[in-house]
């Protein structure tokens, strides 16, 4: 495992920036171990919901974690708005960095992650491959 501290800057889309990390570092598997920072609005998909929830205004990232694969990131995040209300869910495109996002990523050079349809869940789920197979 190789750790990669990363800072995102104002205006970057959180999900898009993390989707680019693996290719930029020549690996095919990784995890976001933790992240903090601030956003200018967020789009989250809450548990069991079919539609996105938009969180308006300036918000703080309290936690950020997930897996990174060439098929795209699977990220969960909790955020707090200006009144301290906390909300969490799946990170969607449209989470724009306000001042900073400080993120720690673990790159796994001996593995390759993929997302494949799982008949039991009905969703594309993580499949872990070792490079030696």
TrEMBL record:
Gene3D superfamilies listed in its UniProt record: Hypothetical protein, similar to alpha- acetolactate decarboxylase, domain 2 (3.30.1330.80)
PROSITE patterns: PPC (PS51742)
Keyword DNA-binding applies: yes
Residue span, PPC domain: 1-129
Keyword list, A-Z: DNA-binding
Coiled coil: none
Pfam families: PCC
Keyword DNA-binding annotated: yes
PANTHER family (alphabetical): DNA-BINDING PROTEIN, PROTEIN, PUTATIVE-RELATED
The protein, known as: DNA-binding protein
Organism lineage string: Bacteria, Pseudomonadati, Pseudomonadota, Betaproteobacteria, Burkholderiales
